[in-house]
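ARCHIVE CARD
CATEGORY: sequence design from structure
SOURCE FIELD: tokenized fold
FIELD CONTENT:
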């Protein structure tokens, strides 16, 4: 009888291979099969050994070619066949990555697994664009949000709490709903001139960004059409980016004090 294998749910980080953990790299280099997502960068996939099988289960927004249940069953089937599986996910597996669901499915099936954390895109973005997510005297807390709810359900957030000026907001998957998010935040008291940075492909060679304000971000995003996955950081801490050397790229860069 074949001994059951093991699944490692591995965070690949935001894209730059140098931001992977040593453990993630070690597991990838020893993998016999890698099951990976759309957000895992090519630079990281290039590290997978030539002899290892690669299974792409990548999903696009609103277009999920491989249903989550099928991904779970693939992991279980491979492990039952005795394979040591690396389940490679963008960023951190437990941050809006459905890593918890996959872990639950593996646990229910009696498959040994481990979780290897990765640098989430919020942290990658903060470092790459010089935006401290908290800063003494400016921001005392940070909240991570999804800008997209299951089956496109309406966003149902504690808007009053999110409008707190001392809190930095990081919005994942927010491209389609950034207009609604900005409108709700200002309607609940967040200042319209609150700075916002939108970053696409953070930490990758093709990284791009724009700096805007809550009342302009939706229009600026339409005009800029940033390519790739986008993350937003909203809050006064964005002003520090200019002091730390990040240039303001926006359709009208002169209207935000941050660019001085
Ligand atoms: C399904 S979530 C996965 C998040 C991932 N588990 C993490 O920890 O970063 C996908 C969203 O993460 C964000 N994202 C992931 N990688 C990114 C990158 N390199 N640059 C900008 N945003 C990124 C985008 O908001 C994207 O829509």
């Amino acid at each position: 009888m074949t001994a059951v294998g093991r699944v490692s749910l591995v965070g690949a980080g935001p894209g730059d291979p140098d931001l992977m953990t040593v453990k993630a790299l070690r597991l990838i280099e020893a993998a016999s099969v890698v099951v990976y997502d759309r957000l895992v960068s090519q630079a990281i996939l290039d590290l997978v050994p030539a002899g290892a099988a690669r299974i792409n289960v990548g999903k696009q927004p609103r277009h999920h070619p491989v249903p989550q249940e099928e991904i779970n069953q693939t992991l279980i089937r491979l492990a039952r066949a005795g394979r040591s599986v690396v389940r490679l996910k963008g960023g951190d597996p437990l941050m809006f990555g459905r890593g918890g669901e996959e872990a639950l499915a593996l646990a229910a099936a009696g498959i040994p697994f481990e979780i290897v954390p990765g640098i989430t895109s919020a942290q990658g973005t903060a470092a790459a664009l010089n935006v401290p997510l908290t800063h003494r005297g400016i921001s005392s807390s940070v909240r991570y949000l999804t800008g997209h709810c299951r089956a496109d359900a309406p966003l149902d957030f504690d808007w009053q709490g999110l409008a707190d000026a001392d809190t930095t907001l990081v919005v994942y998957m927010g491209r389609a709903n950034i207009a609604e998010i900005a409108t709700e935040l200002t309607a609940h008291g967040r200042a319209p001139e609150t700075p916002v940075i939108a970053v696409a492909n953070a930490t990758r060679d093709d990284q791009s960004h724009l700096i805007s304000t809550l009342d302009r971000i939706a229009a600026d995003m339409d005009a800029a059409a940033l390519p790739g996955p986008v993350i937003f950081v909203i809050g006064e801490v964005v002003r520090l980016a200019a002091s730390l050397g990040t240039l303001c790229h926006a359709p009208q860069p002169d209207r935000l004090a941050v660019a001085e």
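CARD ANNOTATION: The pocket of S-adenosylmethionine is lined by residues 14-15, 39, 89-92, 95-97, 120-121, 172-173, 199-204, 229-231 (CB under 6 Å). The chain has nine helices and ten strands.
SHELF: design records, drawer C
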